[in-house]
What does this fold into?
Amino acid sequence: MRTPDSPNPVFDFWITKIQVDPECYQDRVEGVHILLLDVTVKTYMPANPVDLETVYALLNPSAFEIKGADGATQVSQKGECPKSEPLPEHYAANSKYTGQIPLISLAESGTLILLPGGPKVFAPTDPDLAPPKTPAPGAANGWEWRF
It folds into this structure.
């Protein structure tokens, strides 16, 4: 991943596993699921060290969208998984990190979407408060993972 101001790569990342309703999700609510993402991040030496802040900007819980099998899309929110290993908020150059991102999802299966500019829709995770669901936008220049 490069920033517009950096000729050098700033970081790479991999989502290596997506668990739906992992064991750490104890207080289950009907119609609400937890996605637990296992993530690896490798940082490089950017031209400007402040560029490393883009790692958390991209890989924070609110940066994802979830498109359910029914085609409805929601913005993810941070979930709770007490035994998960969170990624850091700050990153050092030339380092490797592994951790997890727990997300709240209304969908039990579908597609996880990460767009560089952030989510394009908003819907609360409480199904009773959610407005009509919005169709998923195209994921041009983004990433998608099925779960």
